[in-house]
């Protein structure tokens, strides 16, 4: 331990300017006159640690012990805690304040000017965007107007072509048809209405020729058009067939499956072939217009009496009737024994 030193210090706290580690400050007192008093201070190499780091000091600011209390110069403690400590000699006061960062007015002015410039640029950009939006809206409107005008023009031209097609094909092929064109010069939909009986009267080849003639006339006016169409029953507007075309005008017809009047078909087959070459036959039919199955019942002994030519004429006649008269796309037939329904042949 260091030897005791006699130090003269003012008694009033504003003159001593010391901080007690215990947390208590000397009470501030005011006297009419300054008094000096000798004290016994103990210097014991006291260390000050702030956040793990030792705070340096010199001989003038070294902490000391007095009557069991450790004293540290207030300015030393304030510096360690990033506080500003000053002595007000006039009023004999120690003033402690936070250290602040001085604000340079020129910096503030420069920042304000920058904000003003950026705000002006932003407003200019907004105005430009508003102008662009208005321009885009006008262009879209003009484009739609052009499309509408083109559609009206195309529609008007299609109606003229429609009139000509009806004039040319109303009685052509004995169809007594009505033709309607819809769409535009790039995509044209054809609707043809006629009675089912007139459509059924046309063979497959004549149907194809009839539709291809119509398509060829359309392609003469609209060579790049995609054309598809529907044939409808004029009585009830049921679809009879649909068709598509290629760039050469070739037509592909797709027949639509429809319910067959099997009772009528069986009766008609019986009228035609119920007794054939002296042999009795019965018929049952099931399916639809896309595919029908017909069973021909006959006594096996009677069947064997027929020549191959007679057998072929019978089965071919049944198939042709179903395809040509009933518009069945595919026919599957069986000749069966009347006695046990066993299969004799397939045709």
TrEMBL record:
Domain called Copper amine oxidase-like N-terminal: residue spans:
51-122
Q: Where is the signal peptide?
A: 1-32
- Family annotation (InterPro entries): Cu_amine_oxidase-like_N, Mao_N_sf
**Pfam families assigned to the protein according to its UniProt record, in alphabetical order:** Cu_amine_oxidN1
Q: Which SUPFAM superfamilies match?
A: Copper amine oxidase, domain N
Q: Does the keyword Signal apply?
A: yes
Q: What's the name of the protein?
A: Stalk domain-containing protein
Q: Which organism is it from?
A: Paenibacillus polymyxa (Bacillus polymyxa)
